[in-house]
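Q: For a teaching session next week I want to show students how multiple molecules come together into a single three-dimensional assembly. I've collected the sequence lines for a complex. Could you give me the predicted C-alpha cells for the whole thing so I can convert them for display?
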Amino acid sequence: MPPELNIVSKIKTLLFIVCLIPAIWLTIAVLTNQLGANPIEAVTRETGLWALRFLWLTLLITPLRWLTGWNDLVRYRRLLGLYVFFYAVLHMLLYLGLDQFFDINEIIKDIIKRPFITIGFFSFTALIPLVITSNNAMVKRMGGRRWKQLHRLTYFIAIASSIHFYMLVKLDKQEPLIYMGLLIILLAPRVYRYAKSTAIKH
Amino acid sequence: MLFKKTRLGELPASEVTDYSVYLNRRQFLNGAAIAATGSLLPISLASAASVPEPTYKGLIKSAYSTDDSSTPFESVTTYNNFYEFGTDKGSPALMATKFPDKSKPWRVRIDGECDKPGEYDYDDLIRPFTLEERIYRLRCVEGWSMVIPWVGFPLADLIKRAQPNSRAKFVEFTTLFDPEQMPGQNRNVLDWPYTEGLRMDEAMNPLTLLSVGLYGQELLGQNGAPIRLVVPWKYGFKSIKSIVRIRFVESLPQSAWMKAGPNEYGFYSNVNPDVDHPRWSQSRERRIGEFLKRKTEIFNGYGEEVAHMYTGMDLRKYF
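A: Of course. Below is the structure for the complete assembly, covering every listed component.
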C-alpha cells in the first residue's frame, strides 16, 4: 500500500471511531440514568440532532475543499454520510418503536396528519437510495454523472430535515434557526459557483 | 447540551455554599435513585426514599387525591417547563436555585372587580387558609404527564374572601416580572409577564388549587415558588407559577400562550384526547418514569368534577 493511502485509511479508522462516540455516550447515559426524567424523549431528540450534525458535516466537505485545496477530504465524505444514515435509523427506530410502539395504523395516520412527521419521513426515505448507491461498484455502474445527480438529493434531505426540526420545536426556535443559518452558509458557495459557471456559459 | 455546565467558578464566593449544597443533594438523589432500583435499567423509578423530610406536617389528606403512584421527587423537581428560567426542561432546576430572593418580600396583589382588594405579603396571604395535601395528575400539552402530591388550599377559599362583584366573570393571574431573578425573561420567547386566566366557575371549582408546596416541602423555584396555581384537568401551562397578581375581570383574559400561538393554545386548554394540538396528537401520553404510553383521558380523568361546566360547549371550537 502506498504510504499516502495508508494515512488515509488510518484517518478513516480514526474517524469511524470518533463518529461512534455520540452513540456510545448516549448508550452509557441511558444505562446510567443520566438523561433526566424523560430519557426516551431525550435519546430520540439527540439521535435526530446527531443525524443533522453529520449531514451538515458531509455538506462541509466540498466548500472546505474549495477553500483549502485539500481535495483528499472527499475521501472521508462517504463515511460521514453513512453515519448520517446510522443516526437517522436510530432516530427513526426510536420514533417507530418507543413513540408509536410499531402500531402501523397510528404511524400511517401520524405521517399523513402531522406535517413535521411527513417531512421527516420523506427526508429519511430519501437517504435510502443514497446509502444503496454509496459503494464504489454502484458509482461505477451508474456512471459519475448520474451518481452525482442522484446524490444531489442530499440538498433536499438537508432542507427537509431542518424544516422538520423547526416545526417540531414548540416555541423557542433558536436552535433550529442556528442549524438553518449554518445550512445557508454551507449552500451559499455552491449557489455562487453554479451562478458563476452558468454566467460564463452564456 | 446534555452535560450541564455548572460554572462554579463564576459564582461570587457568598453564593458558592448554596450551590454546592444543591449539587450534593442532586448527587445524593442520583445515587439513591440508582441504588433504589438496584439495576441500570433506563426506566428506573426512584423510590420515595429520595424525598427530603417534609416541612409541612399533619396535612389533611384530600379526598380528591388520585391513587396513582406519585412521580419521583427527583423528576418533579428537575423536569420543568418554566420559560422564565430557560426553555430547556433541565434549566429551571439549575437557574432557579436561589429563587425567590428571600431578601425581597413576596407580595401578591388581589384587585379588579371585587369588594375586598388588597396587597398581601406571602405569609399574610396564606395565613387564613388550611393547607392540605392533594395528589393530582398533571398532563403537559407536550404529551407527558406526572402525578404530584401538592400542598395547597382551594382557590375558591381565597376568592370568597376577596368578594368578587357581579362584573367579575373571569380571573386573571400574573407571574412575577423580574429579569434579574428570572433570566429567561431577557429573551422574548413569550410576551412577559406570563399571564393565565380562568372562567369564574372554573376558578371556584373545588379542584382548583393554589399550591405552596409539593411532597410536603415548600415549593422550589423551578416548581413555581412561592405560590402557584394547579388546575388538574387543564394542560400544565394553565397552572401558572410564581403568582404576584390575581385580578377579577369582566372580559376573557388573553394568556401568554394564546398570544404566542392563538391557533395552538386556547383559553380553555382542557385536556382532551380527541382534540389534537395542530402539530401533534393528544390521544396518548408518556407518564414520566413509565416505558409504555398510556391513553389520555378527557379532562385528565377529572370529568366527574368538571365536565358539567362545559355541557353544550363545542370543545373543538373552545379548545
